[in-house]
Amino acid sequence: xxxxxxxxxxxxIGNTPLVRLHEVVKSIPAKVYAKVEGMNPGLSSKDRIAxxxxxxxxxxxxxxxxxxxxxxxxxxxxxxxxxxxxxxGYNCVLCTTKKTSQEKIQALEALGAQVVICxxxxxxxxRSYYNTAERLHTETPNSIYLNxxxxxxxxxxxxxxxxxxxxxxxxxxxxxxxxCVGTGGTISGTGKYLKDQNPNVQVIGVDAYxxxxxxxxxxxxxxxxxxxxxQVEGLGKTIIPGNVYFDVIDHFIKVNDYNSAIAARxxxxxxxxxxxxxxxxxxxxxxxxxxxxxxNDVVVLLFSxxxxxxxxxxxxxxxxxxxxxxxxxxDAKVQTLNNxxxxxxxxx
Length: 348
Ligand code: PMP
Fold this sequence. Notes:
With 348 residues, this protein is α/β, with parallel strands linked by helices. The chain is built from eleven helices and ten strands. It has helices spanning 46-59, 76-88, 102-110, 129-139, 153-160, 162-169, 185-197, 213-219, 257-271, 277-288, 317-337; strands spanning 18-20, 31-36, 68-72, 91-97, 114-118, 143-145, 176-180, 202-208, 251-255, 298-303.
């Protein structure tokens, strides 16, 4: 009898399930599926890029045994890198910001990574988490800086894994692919693979209010005035990452913290899918484009990570009230006073 085992936990990366949604998409005419990336061993899609980029560096001779891997990460990529480093025996140093949840930081440390908390400053500032990771790498012999925002290994990982999986799981029937955009690796690699199979597949990017990406896609302008604080982790950017292949993305939909949190919480209660904050963003984006869909469409939403990473955030009532609901009420009041914006009736 053939043993059905993994040689290491790394063999369990990928081949995540594609799960049909029911209750939360009652008002959507199309068939809707979720690619549940929180079922990777590191509980996010980022396991895929960590493994792919590290093995690419090994093959190219950029990483030698006993070497050190540096990265700037909001947490999930860090977890993947820490996991791969633990298995392969590399040192792992991760630069992040205070916005990253405490549970995520503790998980990185549990896997043996060293975590460097950097101030939340402009990306170009020498103290930013990007510049800190790069500087530490240049100061450390036998080290690499993975650079998930600009190294094309990020998008390639999804071109070779996530894209083919979704194409096979839907047996080529997918018509719309909706994914949150941070570094852009997930949407660019997966979207490019899907369009290579069928150029008619629509690829829809989800961006946060407070991020520069959607406006850049529409106008080609990097508009600093778009930048404002928000709570959803992993989604949106204040730089234009090299891994956002704008020509693969048909259009963007912007979402806010409030709608993302409500949608993520509905997924847990109504579908039994305990997924992260940005998964709520992807679901809300679907609601926003409901009018474009018909009963013949097959939509795939990419759910990037697992809900257990947000127990002290969107699944904590006090945090939610202080950081999302209160702000939403204040925004609604200001905007209504200005007579510019009245809360829309939810479309679910
Ligand atoms: N959601 C979460 C929770 C993430 O960690 C990330 C990665 N930063 C994304 C969405 C966006 O994925 P990508 O970086 O591939 O665009």
